[in-house]
Amino acid sequence: MPTHTNNENQKLLTTFQIHMSECGVPPWLQEKMFSVIEEDKRSMPIDEIFETLSTFGATTTTALPEQFYDEHWLQMVYNTRLEWVKEEIEFLEEVTYDSLVEHLEYIPPPVKAMSEQAQKAYIAVSSCLLNALCQIDTMSSAGKTSKYSKDSMQKNVYLAPMFPGLVGIFAVLLPFWSTDLFYIWLGVMGALIVWMFFAYLVKAHRDPSKHALLMVFHMDLAAFCCLLPFWRLVGSQTWVAMLLVVSYLFVMLLTHFNKRVVAKELFGRGGGRLKGRIFTFSFLIPSVLVGSILIFPHYYQDLFGYDKSTLVLSLGMLPFAYIMVVFFHCLWARVEDPQFDANKS
Fold first, then answer.
1. Could you give the C-alpha distances from 291 to 228, 303, 304, in angstroms and in order?
2. Any idea what the Cα angle at residue 21 is, between residues 110 and 35, rounded to 5°?
3. Most confident option among 191-205, 276-290, 321-335
């Protein structure tokens, strides 16, 4: 890292604090990290400190600065932050596929001599901090890189119309071309593009609530479009349309009234059984449906009278409608509460 002036050093520290927050490091652990930095500043320049911290993050071990090898402090963390410790360990086991016992084999020798509770606290602390330290090299000293990168990612929400647009064109094509639906598709896409234009003018992507609203609306619309090919496949019958709409609204309302729970399960670090079940069914249901079409194509062709490829696309899109509603409508929690964080209880 290059040498920084005092002003640049302060900007670097501020950027590092923002970086840790974005990586999910809790405030009390940030305070501990900064106390370590302040202590090290007495004997080495700030550049060397961050270079050393970056080295910790680049290794495959769980080593941290020696100030974290404090059994009294680790025991206090375990006693006062037990739920956090458990969540961090569960998350670590989930992403690494290794058990706590296996992780304990690789902790630094000083920690191995501590109590079991202190060791668990260290595993949680190291997992949380190393996730932030391994990304230090991507930080900009002035904070501009992360700021502009984040802003650029947020602007991707203006591409949201392409989701209902792409699914909608399938609704126009399957099982055969519909000129009337094509004109409806053009009108809807035109309205969405105009909406995105005005949303961009007011910088809606910088408002968490408006950002979430744009994403939820477009994905809900894309999910609805997934239902149309099947409806057309069975002859555009009224009772089928009513069944599809009612089931669609039921899933949406069920997700809406439980949006916080669903969002935490899907996007939070502590997601458990529900997340696993949703992900399982996300692939299981379409796979079984499409697989049955491939295995028994003549049955479906005799039933509906269309070729196999049309059947696969039309019926295969149906379950994805409900999956998309569950996955994205839960983000309405951010519409009502811009400060909503799926990682917080």
1. 21, 17, 17
2. 45
3. 191-205
